[in-house]
């Protein structure tokens, strides 16, 4: 298909500068071919990269990385930059795909400055680089590259505000405006961007100038020549400036240009049809059952309100389904703080708000969860996806810190369901009760079915699923199935029946039940899907601390794991069934 | 001085509506007298309340609370509102001062909707009230009241953005512009506010319109008649609007008008001179030693950089001292996310950033601490004030959640100094090393002096300050002095010498040391100044869980305590020395 004539000559940005304009255009075509090569085979971020091919070529043509420093927001659009900075093999050579993280990563290259994966941070990070450069009396260009979807995030707006007055030196903020977040954009600022696009940058209604910033516009955001002219104009500028470029998300693949939301990120796919080439089991999954629940609940209950910070996909809501929800659905854009505080306000006024997003993103609303929701004890339900160690394994997207972060916030009831029946009952209970803020962790494993206690009104009551002796296994949430397997292994190997407990509540302990276990148990085992530090098991260990009961907590270490094999990780931390069986023998001696 | 002729007739907002304009002006005078009565005697927020007397009278005159709903940002400016809503006795009757929390509080009055104390949340909360109102088909006015200082917070900007497009119904955002945060305002948006003030609202450079919002300006923000006219104009409006009023912070007390920063908040004071009527000990304090350290470090090290989200007072930096720091000082405005991410960028570029603020406020940067600083392992130092249970006791300002929140974040080294020598050495070590992000908790107790190990290069090495037997006391940070007292009491009461350990590191455990304690100890006691849940002691309990060592964790319950007596609280949770002595007897049996 392509012999990557130019790409193969690019060992670093200095090689980009050697090419003529026509050659740069051929290079752009080759980069798209390289992107296709990787993305058709292993998937990844599609639209953001296809839209930014020309801009990243022009940036490397005009500026001198790594002396000049690019800070990519989210960095899911940095693939062309990676191809141009010595990492082409991650795209053109299938054997090397795994060497590339999919985000900027200082461990990969001196051209990357931060490991990032959350939105709206680039301007803030860039102001820091600029400030330190100024302290040292140096003069390189600092360039933040941020998409319009990320602009709704408070941190990006804080960054614009600070850049607009506290930095009096070079700082270039490239706003890549493709009129799209993951889903459609939401927020009043997009009217200002539209005015600017339609007036070719001349509208007096200018968000960036309102933050005190200089400003320049370029309509031709996918035209290398125009972009080179533009970037040369602002290179070595002596004050902060916003460079607003208009690009086309997914540029160069009509199927993606026509359906920008679906092609923000892709599974491996067939280039001719756009159809995924891998499929998941036909069986039930938690996402589609959540979608169904939400649509049904909205019909049944006019007070029910879904609020999402730009992550309708976290619960599978398609554009059509969002339209069906109508006024019972609010997308606040990428703005987790707003989403959670808005939910608190809505709950106070009698609505039944459900905030939906991924676990890793909600941490931006830690303060709002604590201060605006939990101090006020407003009945907000926060529903989180990708809660498990075997969900997203990129270091910037881990779900393993949720228990440590939220289960220690007073008043917040954190629920960890173990099966479909329990999950749906928890959702219904949480939305209909008025006494507690609740967080529900969507299980990360396959869908199980069980008959169990579906009454949650007594907070922190654990459920004994099987009563036994000697050893009690407290297996939280989607590790309950592992607890069941361990119980069976104990019966088979050691010939006694351990007690098997489904704690259901991750944010407290059932002191009565734990006390009763002292009668005929010597060892309590906890299993949890997250880091041990600050998590569930430590609470159990602390409770039994002054007693004769032995406790062993199983979970992950406090560490930023990155792109790991999940089962190998469990073995590394010693929590496979054979390892635990060996431990039990030792502890019971 | 004043017989509060009108105030005494005001049992609720309906009584405000009965007064003539002249009477309302007299009422304003009386409210200022009432504020003087409370503030001269017990202190509190001064400038924000004196500046908003007329506006809050006019709001209650025009709108009908609680049907119409006021959401006060931070709510430190809500005293006049409280006086007008049945809570005058908290201001005019000294015996009732303690009945008033100093912030809005739904437990106090149906006219208050949220317990708040952090900034920049009012617009988000109000959008939630508005959304729920719309779902229910109701039509009351929702009014957010936010100061210009709070506008730099990302959540407020997210709120403006969402209000500017996702709410198509009544929402009134009163921006109280007094040209001041606690310190001076920082950020480019203040140029837009200045343009608007100078043009009487007609400037095309309009931040609010750039967020898609309707807008109206009133210069006479301390003129009741003008404000009544203004609020009548927007009452029952069918879409969101920003009502920008220009007020004078501290209005009515020249000393405060002339020194707005010092009079944001006041101690009890003499009205004639403005001088505080209480004084603190003459001895050393951690704040002034921090100020001295910062000024000295800046002189010694050109890479040293202080970054604060509008809280220079957290380390005692006066305007003059900030000027002396020059380019080594950045106030980003109320914008914790920006402060922390900027620090990460600055550290990456070789600066030595020190982020300073209060513990309760840094939780807004939880994501940035984890994602932007700790994943990248950039050597940022975060220095926190009011870390202790006996610092600020308002439920919205507690410092007791810091260990649970941050000490479980991977890579972050959390240091808990026990004395001056250790504190200053930790600061110096942290700023000069390049291997770890560090958080230092400024002790909340009196200044102690000790000779101890000042080498922190081996992370998580605890220091045995006195070796003993049977019982080991691990006393963290500013509870070390309580550990010393406990040790003495054990010697005296039980006749043996316990081991006394200063852990120094709050974010990990010294496994070698803990293992060695097994030789001649039966009980390990942990003492920490914060909630137990997710905290330090639980990590020790988990470590010893499978062993014969007994562990008892002492600390606070996971609870939103409010305006408590600190020593009574310690007794309530069973951690006074006599209580612990009794426990020891029991556990050693």
Automatic annotation (TrEMBL), chains A, B:
Name under which the protein is recorded: 1-deoxy-D-xylulose-5-phosphate synthase
Cofactor: Mg(2+)
Keyword Magnesium: yes
Keywords per UniProt: Isoprene biosynthesis, Magnesium, Metal-binding, Thiamine biosynthesis, Thiamine pyrophosphate, Transferase
Gene3D superfamilies, alphabetized: 3.40.50.920, 3.40.50.970
A cellular component annotation (GO) from this entry: cytosol
EC number: 2.2.1.7
Domain Transketolase-like pyrimidine-binding stretches: 284-449
Similarity section: Belongs to the transketolase family. DXPS subfamily.
Top-tier EC class: transferase
Origin: domain of life: Bacteria
Subunit field text: Homodimer.
